[in-house]
Amino acid sequence: MRILEKLVMILIIDTTKRSELLLGLINDKVEKWKKLETTRQSKEILSVINSLIKESDSTLNDLKAVFVNRGPGSYTGLRVGIAVANTLAWALNIQTIGYLDEKMQEALDKFKTKPELKFQGIAKPYYDRQID
Known about the structure:
By secondary structure, the protein is of the alpha/beta class.
Protein backbone atom coordinates (compact mmCIF):
# COMPACT_ATOMS: atom_id res chain seq x y z
CA MET A 1 0.00 0.00 0.00
CA ARG A 2 1.38 3.38 -0.95
CA ILE A 3 1.49 6.10 1.68
CA LEU A 4 -0.26 8.68 -0.50
CA GLU A 5 -3.22 6.41 -1.35
CA LYS A 6 -5.32 7.94 1.41
CA LEU A 7 -4.26 11.46 0.43
CA VAL A 8 -6.47 12.16 -2.52
CA MET A 9 -4.48 15.10 -3.82
CA ILE A 10 -1.72 17.58 -2.95
CA LEU A 11 -1.40 20.96 -4.68
CA ILE A 12 2.10 22.39 -5.16
CA ILE A 13 2.58 26.11 -5.81
CA ASP A 14 5.86 27.74 -6.89
CA THR A 15 5.82 31.45 -7.73
CA THR A 16 9.42 32.23 -6.78
CA LYS A 17 10.46 33.25 -10.28
CA ARG A 18 9.31 36.68 -11.40
CA SER A 19 7.97 35.56 -14.78
CA GLU A 20 6.96 31.95 -14.13
CA LEU A 21 4.09 30.15 -12.48
CA LEU A 22 4.63 26.46 -11.65
CA LEU A 23 1.77 24.39 -10.25
CA GLY A 24 1.52 20.68 -9.61
CA LEU A 25 -1.03 18.13 -8.46
CA ILE A 26 0.12 14.82 -7.09
CA ASN A 27 -1.31 11.74 -5.44
CA ASP A 28 -0.28 8.10 -5.46
CA LYS A 29 -1.14 7.62 -9.15
CA VAL A 30 -0.99 11.02 -10.82
CA GLU A 31 1.62 13.71 -11.13
CA LYS A 32 0.47 16.62 -13.25
CA TRP A 33 2.35 19.91 -13.71
CA LYS A 34 1.57 23.23 -15.37
CA LYS A 35 4.25 25.77 -16.09
CA LEU A 36 3.19 29.17 -17.37
CA GLU A 37 5.46 31.99 -18.49
CA THR A 38 3.70 35.11 -17.24
CA THR A 39 4.34 38.43 -15.58
CA ARG A 40 0.79 38.38 -14.20
CA GLN A 41 1.03 35.64 -11.58
CA SER A 42 -1.53 37.24 -9.30
CA LYS A 43 -4.10 37.47 -12.09
CA GLU A 44 -3.56 33.99 -13.50
CA ILE A 45 -2.81 31.70 -10.56
CA LEU A 46 -6.40 30.92 -9.57
CA SER A 47 -7.56 30.17 -13.11
CA VAL A 48 -4.53 27.92 -13.69
CA ILE A 49 -5.20 26.05 -10.42
CA ASN A 50 -8.83 25.66 -11.47
CA SER A 51 -7.94 24.28 -14.90
CA LEU A 52 -5.32 21.92 -13.45
CA ILE A 53 -7.83 20.49 -10.98
CA LYS A 54 -10.52 20.13 -13.68
CA GLU A 55 -8.07 18.39 -16.04
CA SER A 56 -7.39 15.89 -13.26
CA ASP A 57 -11.12 15.16 -12.86
CA SER A 58 -10.91 16.42 -9.28
CA THR A 59 -12.38 19.18 -7.15
CA LEU A 60 -10.92 21.51 -4.54
CA ASN A 61 -12.45 19.27 -1.88
CA ASP A 62 -10.14 16.46 -3.02
CA LEU A 63 -7.11 18.46 -1.86
CA LYS A 64 -5.57 17.28 1.43
CA ALA A 65 -2.58 19.64 1.56
CA VAL A 66 -1.08 22.65 -0.20
CA PHE A 67 2.70 22.83 -0.56
CA VAL A 68 4.23 26.21 -1.39
CA ASN A 69 7.80 27.24 -2.20
CA ARG A 70 8.73 29.80 0.48
CA GLY A 71 11.79 31.10 -1.35
CA PRO A 72 14.15 32.61 -1.81
CA GLY A 73 12.78 34.37 -4.85
CA SER A 74 10.84 37.27 -6.25
CA TYR A 75 9.36 39.35 -3.42
CA THR A 76 5.99 39.83 -5.12
CA GLY A 77 5.94 36.28 -6.45
CA LEU A 78 6.49 34.85 -2.98
CA ARG A 79 3.66 36.93 -1.56
CA VAL A 80 1.29 35.82 -4.32
CA GLY A 81 2.01 32.09 -3.99
CA ILE A 82 2.02 32.06 -0.20
CA ALA A 83 -1.18 34.12 0.07
CA VAL A 84 -3.01 31.76 -2.30
CA ALA A 85 -1.66 28.64 -0.54
CA ASN A 86 -2.57 29.90 2.93
CA THR A 87 -6.03 31.05 1.85
CA LEU A 88 -6.89 27.79 0.09
CA ALA A 89 -5.65 25.72 3.02
CA TRP A 90 -7.54 27.79 5.56
CA ALA A 91 -10.77 27.75 3.53
CA LEU A 92 -10.56 23.98 2.97
CA ASN A 93 -9.27 23.25 6.50
CA ILE A 94 -6.22 21.41 5.16
CA GLN A 95 -2.51 21.63 5.86
CA THR A 96 -0.26 24.35 4.36
CA ILE A 97 3.34 23.27 4.09
CA GLY A 98 6.05 25.71 3.09
CA TYR A 99 9.35 24.39 1.79
CA LEU A 100 12.57 26.13 0.83
CA ASP A 101 13.64 26.15 -2.82
CA GLU A 102 14.64 22.69 -4.08
CA LYS A 103 13.58 20.96 -0.83
CA MET A 104 10.12 19.94 -1.99
CA GLN A 105 10.86 16.20 -1.96
CA GLU A 106 12.16 16.43 1.60
CA ALA A 107 8.93 18.20 2.65
CA LEU A 108 6.80 15.60 0.83
CA ASP A 109 8.66 12.73 2.49
CA LYS A 110 8.18 14.30 5.91
CA PHE A 111 4.47 14.82 5.21
CA LYS A 112 4.09 11.20 4.05
CA THR A 113 5.44 9.85 7.32
CA LYS A 114 3.28 12.07 9.53
CA PRO A 115 0.45 13.71 7.61
CA GLU A 116 -1.46 16.41 9.47
CA LEU A 117 -4.66 16.81 7.52
CA LYS A 118 -6.18 19.80 9.31
CA PHE A 119 -5.14 23.43 9.01
CA GLN A 120 -2.29 24.05 11.48
CA GLY A 121 -1.16 27.54 10.53
CA ILE A 122 0.25 29.61 7.71
CA ALA A 123 3.39 29.23 5.63
CA LYS A 124 5.72 32.23 5.84
CA PRO A 125 7.99 33.57 3.08
CA TYR A 126 11.77 33.32 3.14
CA TYR A 127 13.08 36.49 1.47
CA ASP A 128 16.85 36.01 1.91
CA ARG A 129 18.66 35.95 -1.43
CA GLN A 130 21.76 34.00 -2.26
CA ILE A 131 24.74 36.01 -3.48
CA ASP A 132 26.43 34.57 -6.60
